[in-house]
Amino acid sequence: MAVLGPVKDPSVYMLNETTSLKDYQDKLLEILLYFDDFCRKHGLRYYLAGGTCIGAVRHQGYIPWDCDVDVIMLRDDYEKLTKIWDQYADTSRYVFDRTTETNNMRAQVGAIKDVNTTYIRSHNTHYDMNHGMPIDILVWDKLSDNAFARKIQVFNGMVFSLFNAQRIPNQHGGLAKVVTKILLGIIRSKSLRYKIWSRCEKRMSKYNDRETTYVGELVCGYKNGCRLYKAEWFKEPKELMFEGHKVYCPTYPEKYLEVRYGDFMTLPPEDERIPKFTPAFIDLKKSYKEYKGTEYDDSEENK
Predict the structure, then answer these.
(1) Banded model confidence at residue 184, pLDDT cuts 50, 70, 90
(2) Residue 119 to residue 211: CA distance in whole angstroms
(3) CA-to-CA distance for 208 and 7, rounded, in angstroms?
(4) Nearest to 206 by CA among 164, 149, 148
(5) What pLDDT band is residue 176 in, cutting at 50, 70 and 90?
(6) Are 156 and 167 in contact (CB under 8 A)?
(7) Is the pLDDT of residue 303 over 70?
């Protein structure tokens, strides 16, 4: 029986009949620590992002009711990760998943996924894809110092997001959903969609070979794309404790979080301290491959 209401003890808040929130957080931590070790060995920088970063600063671990892990990588480190992961990582356990011309992961961010687990999102139940538990890798780009050029970057980021994820967004307003549905209906060719998003990706990342004042997240909507974060806040990572382990955060995590959230140190009202968790199915002990045909299928793959 699931425990309803605000989370006070993650070990008793049940996500399903067999899995507590604490079980789920522990499995995500395993993935994060493997990723952290990989990055340190290969000289890659990453930074805890969003609520995961708040947790490190405010709780020295998870926000008690949090149910995901997000990290930021600047473009150069992200592209290096793409090139070396399969060569050096234990891909029998962890796969680096990103959308390519031939692989559509139905999300505009990359992820490290545990292939021995199952995490099926509600909008992905009709796709034969990697449904392993993920930690999301948010790729950030350097932003032009020219305000008009930055707007062009944001526009290209929005078009990239639409044709890269190739699905109707479930966390944006009604207008965004209507526009997305119309454009995806008009442009149905997978090869043409790939050409569009790959060109937009090149355009939005064109400033990464130079020094700029700001960096930012261009692939998660207009509002996020317009937020400006000083590049100096994302130089050498700062180590903070997270669930008893040292992990990387922005050089100035408080400044990043203030721009992203405002007063991030104040706890939300008690009735809002609940997991924002909507998977169709999870299993921490079995690979998603065992559930093809039961919990997911491929009925939408070629539509």
Answers:
(1) confident
(2) 39
(3) 41
(4) 149
(5) low
(6) no
(7) no
The residues facing 242 across adjacent strands are: 245
C-alpha neighbours within 13 Å on the C-beta side of residue 11:
0
Q: Coil, strand, or helix at residue 91?
A: coil
HSE-up (13 A, CA, CB side) for residue 198: 11
- Round the CA-based radius of gyration of the chain to a whole number and report it: 19
Q: Is 55 exposed, middle or buried (0-12, 13-18, 19+ CB in 10 A)?
A: buried
Higher local confidence (pLDDT), 220 or 139: 139
CB atoms under 10 Å from CB of 84, counted, come to 13
Torsion, Cα of 127, 133, 136, 137 (10° steps): -100
Contact 259, 228 (CB under 8 A): yes
What is d(CA 80, CA 106) in angstroms, rounded to the nearest whole number? 22
In single-letter form, the type of residue at position 267 comes to L
pTM: 0.93
Q: Which of 24, 27, 22, 77 is nearest to 47 (CA)?
A: 77
Burial grade of 286 (CB within 10 A; 0-12, 13-18, 19 or more): exposed
CA dihedral 155, 158, 164, 168 (to 10 degrees): -140
Residues across the chain = 303
Report residue 78 as tokens: 């992200």
Q: Could you give the CA distance from residue 281 to residue 288 in angstroms, rounded to a whole number?
A: 10
Nearest CA among 117, 119, 100 for reference residue 34: 117
Contacts of 163 (CB under 8 A, 6+ apart): 183, 184, 187, 193, 194, 196, 197, 200
Q: 86: buried, middle or exposed (CB in 10 Å: 19+, 13-18, 0-12)?
A: exposed
- For the chain, the domains span 21-291
